[in-house]
Amino acid sequence: MKKILVAEDDEISREIIVRLVESLGHIAIQSSNGKNALAVLLDNPDIQLLICDVMMPELDGMMLIKILRGKESYLTFPIIIISGVAALNEINHLLELGPTIFLEKPLDTGELKRRITEMLPAE
Length: 123
Prior knowledge:
Elements: E1 3-7, H1 11-23, E2 27-31, H2 34-43, E3 47-53, H3 61-69, E4 79-83, H4 88-97, E5 101-104, H5 109-119
Helix pairs in contact: 2-3
């Protein structure tokens, strides 16, 4: 059982992701904005994955990833970023920031489940 932080401001999307994480036997920690997500990550080094939306209040997902990748302990930390962004150049920009995986909204829950399982293999 691993801890996964779900940073998503949309309550319905967050709930869908949380249920999916919990269905895989993991613990889901929730955050509705990027500023809180950053604080939770820094205070909980046992969190093993971040699933984060791009557009969030107080600190967006792009800036959150930039801050995390600027810290040595988070250089290889697994991050799944989700967004409704569809333009190829915007997706490329997101990937340059350093998320491990980009998934497009609306979320394909099967794909998200597969990616989480790949990133957090059973012990």
